[in-house]
Structures are given as C-alpha cells and as structure tokens.
Amino acid sequence: MPGKKYEPEFKQKIIKEALETGNCSIVGRKHNISSSIVARWVREYKRNNEPAGINKNQLINYEPTNIKNLEKENESLKKLLGEKDLEIAILRDLLKKPAHMDKCRI
User: Which molecular function term from Gene Ontology is one that the record holds (predicted)?
Assistant: First the structure.
C-alpha cells in the first residue's frame, strides 16, 4: 500500500517548523503526521541541504541584503517589545498603589 503524498510546499513548511522548534514529535502531532516522517524529512533536508521533492529555488533566499533587512526588523521589534514591557511594568505599578494615593493634593 503506497504512502500518502505530500505537497513540496507542505513539506517545506513542516521542515522549517521542525528545525525552528527542534522537536519533530510536536510538529508531527500538530499537523497530524507521524513524527518519524517529519524526522525523515528533516534528516533528508540536512543530508542533502534540500527537502525531498522540493526544488532549491523554492527555499528561502538568504542573500546579504535579506539578512540586513531581517536584522533591521529584528532590532525594531526588540525596541517595540522593550517599550511594551515598560508600559506593562508602569501599569502594574499603578495597580499596586493604594486607593488613597490616587487623589493628588495640591
């Protein structure tokens, strides 16, 4: 009995997710596929530097300009995250203040 055929784009997505998480079992469960299949796809990708059934042209292109753009985006996202963390800390601090401190006396 032949196995189920998966689209190359789907395989690419699964491989990328498995490499990012480092856990084939979780990725397999999430997408309702056997973890051994996910592990095999990842192994083939690492061995050939190309997933089975996926053309190299379909893979993400990591040119230096793309890396620089990603680094810029990463920095701006870090800054935004820092601002949000500060905002949360301020709001938590305000919630901790006693009620009688809310009214300002001049």
Answer: transposase activity
Between CA 95 and CA 90 the distance in angstroms is: 9
35 closest CA partner among 14, 54, 58? 14
What is d(CA 106, CA 99) in angstroms, rounded to the nearest whole number? 17
User: How far is the C-alpha of 88 from the C-alpha of 106, rounded, in Å?
Assistant: 28
Distance CA 15, CA 39 (A): 9
d(CA 7, CA 94): 53
Look up residue 33 and give its DSSP letter. S
Model confidence pLDDT, tens digit, residues 66-89: 788 888 899 999 999 999 999 999
Gap between the Cα atoms of 10 and 92, Å rounded: 43
Token pair belonging to 34:
């056997």
Per residue in 8-41, pLDDT (tens digit) is 889 999 998 888 888 899 999 999 999 999 999 9
CA gap 63, 68 in Å, rounded = 9
